[in-house]
Design brief:
The complex is a heterodimer. By secondary structure, chain A is mainly α. Chain A has helices at residues 6-33, 54-64, 74-105, 111-120, 130-139, 146-150, 157-169, 172-180, 185-196, 198-213, 217-222, 231-242, 248-268, 270-281. Chain B has a single domain (65-290), classed as MetI-like (MetI-like fold). The chains are: A mainly alpha, B mainly alpha.
């Protein structure tokens, strides 16, 4: 830094360490709780260090589930979450790539009309229009299906804007060259535009995967079939029965299992994640 | 706005925008229209008949002390979450921007909560603050003699969901503040340091003003987050209680519609919320694009 002040340096590190502790402590407690037998967690003070039930607890969760909360194996719920997250992610990317391509590279009547129509979706979070959307999905017979879980969520203004923004920075000469070589719009899209968008797609993939995995209200409303429960939403049932029963160790185990996949994605692809986040929001 | 060189085809562009537009029309525009329409009707409990009542649903809402209290709760909740998470994140970003050697390590430890679902953040904090076994409730009891119980005390329940919501959002704000700070030219800070400005003074007179576009952007994003994305935190933990103390507006749309089965009122609430989102999005795009700056 600009000057050398030992006191300031210590303060800086102290603040950072405090911040890290504040952010990590809750998950630490959840992790520790998930390694104890249920009756260790009925009165305070609860243990702050690992117990010896980790293997038992996680085996119960992954294969058998929590009997009091429907008995759906967490592995099953995680599989559903994965399918939903991937469905939403690929759907959003494909749909927005195509829309952005049309809006940037073609001139056609109602182009701006379509653009504004897409823009409006930004303003209507699912929580706000939940009841009528539910009605429509019911009428379409999409309740309790993977289609119902993913399709209503795949329109994305943010992704469309990001791709539009990126396409606008691609030099015009590329299109000219493609046209001189007699490449049509479809060829141009697959051979030139798509390879150029690789990094953007990857960065967006991370953000959208997290978004999809973490969906809560939508799966909660449209799935009544326990075999379609997703893990982030399924935990809510455990909390509700957990008020009376000593199953906090299993609830916390599920919480840990539910947060591992997105956290691993973020940490493993940190650089891309930061790029995706900062750019998709601007 | 558009390319100078474009492709020509009268049907291909329509085909390309079709999927996006179809999903938008079916799952966004149509439900929004339905909400608008339903908000002018009162439906009987079995859905057999409905009567046009004009603005009665809205009038009933604004005469309902419970709904007005939800407005107030949402405001307190939104402002607290925004202020808490942004100020903590700013402090962390300032510090992370100062350290050189271990910056990446700190960053790794600070960004991962972004990936934690709001519902999970809620559940974990709920566990930590549980009056009978939560570690924080235990500390409050043994160090301060404070008897924490969010099951009966509405204010404590609200504090709990505020902390859970803010905790989850710190990483996001941190990343944006850090990116904003890294784009401030080092030479400016160094010049001020040579002139004898202390670190505190440099922060308030140079860094903070130059960060204003980021701050403003985050202000809007955080308010939107607190108003809408925190549904899961409330639903998974307090369910709006005790006695409606944590029932923010989005939670009320859900509870009126799905639990109370009062479709007209729920639709009217949806319309009001849509109005709020539209205003916030317009503010974001009008002012953020223009860049608040000095």
């Amino acid at each position: 830094m600009v000057e050398n002040r030992p006191f300031l340096k210590i303060l800086t590190h102290a603040v950072l360490i405090l911040g890290v502790l504040f952010l990590c402590f809750p998950v630490w407690m959840a992790l520790v709780a998930s390694t104890h037998p249920g009756d260790a967690l009925v009165r305070s003070p609860i243990p702050m260090w690992f117990g010896d039930q980790a293997v038992e607890n996680y085996t119960t969760l992954l294969s058998g589930g929590v009997a009091e909360a429907g008995g759906v194996p967490v592995l099953r719920m995680m599989w559903n979450s994965l399918l939903m997250a991937l469905g939403i992610t690929f759907g959003k990317i494909a749909v927005s790539l195509l829309a952005a391509y049309a809006i940037v590279y073609f001139r056609f009547p109602f182009r701006m009309g379509f653009f504004w129509l897409i823009f409006i979706t930004l303003m209507l979070p699912i929580e706000v229009r939940i009841l009528p959307t539910y009605d429509i999905v019911t009428n379409l017979g999409m309740l309790n299906s993977y289609w119902g879980l993913t399709v209503p969520l795949i329109a994305s203004a943010t992704a469309t804007f990001l791709f539009r923004q990126f396409f606008l920075t691609i030099p015009d000469e590329l299109v000219e060259a493609a046209r001189i070589d007699r490449a049509g719009p479809i060829r141009f899209f697959f051979d030139i535009l798509l390879p150029l968008s690789r990094t953007n797609i990857a960065a967006l993939f991370i953000i959208l995967f997290i978004f999809g995995w973490n969906q809560y209200l939508w799966p909660f409303i449209i799935t009544t079939d326990v075999d379609l429960y997703t893990v982030v939403m399924g935990i809510q049932r455990m909390v509700n029965v957990g008020e009376g029963l000593p199953i906090w160790h299993l609830t916390m185990g599920t919480a840990i299992l539910a947060l591992i996949p997105p956290v691993v994605v973020v940490l493993a692809m940190q650089r891309l994640f930061v790029k995706g986040l900062v750019e998709s929001e601007k | 706005m558009q390319k100078r060189v474009v492709f020509r085809s009268w049907w291909l562009p329509y085909l390309l925008v079709l999927p996006q537009i179809a999903v938008t029309l079916v799952f966004f525009i149509w439900p929004a229209y339905q909400a608008l329409e339903t908000s002018f009707y009162i439906e009987d409990a079995f859905g057999f008949s409905r009567n046009f009542v004009g603005l009665d649903n809205f009038r009933a809402l604004f005469n309902d002390p419970g709904y007005l209290r939800s407005f107030w709760t949402t405001l307190v909740f939104g402002v607290s979450v925004t202020f808490l998470s942004m100020s903590i994140a700013l402090a962390l970003a300032v510090c992370a921007n100062r350290v050189i050697r271990s910056a990446t390590t700190y960053r790794t430890f600070l960004i991962w909560p972004y990936a934690v679902a709001p519902a999970l953040a809620g559940v974990i904090w709920f566990f930590m603050m549980n009056p009978s076994l939560g570690i924080i409730a235990y500390w409050l009891e043994s160090f301060f003699g404070y008897d924490w119980n969010h099951y009966v005390n509405g204010r404590e329940a609200l504090i709990m969901v505020i902390i859970a919501a803010a905790w989850k959002q710190i990483s996001y704000n941190f990343l944006f503040f850090l990116a904003g700070m890294q784009s401030i030219p080092k030479s400016m800070i160094e010049a001020a340091a040579i002139d004898g400005a202390s670190p505190t003074r440099r922060f308030w007179t140079i860094v903070f003003p130059l960060l204003s576009p980021t701050t403003f952007f985050l202000l809007v994003v955080n308010l939107v987050y607190a108003f809408f994305d925190t549904f899961a935190i409330i639903h998974a933990t307090t369910s709006g209680g005790p006695a409606d103390a944590t029932s923010i507006l989005v939670y009320r749309v859900y509870s009126t519609g799905f639990v109370g089965q009062d479709y007209g009122s729920s639709a009217a609430q949806s319309v009001i919320l849509m109005g709020i989102v539209i205003v916030m999005t317009v503010i974001q795009f009008r002012y953020v694009e223009r860049r608040v700056n000095y």
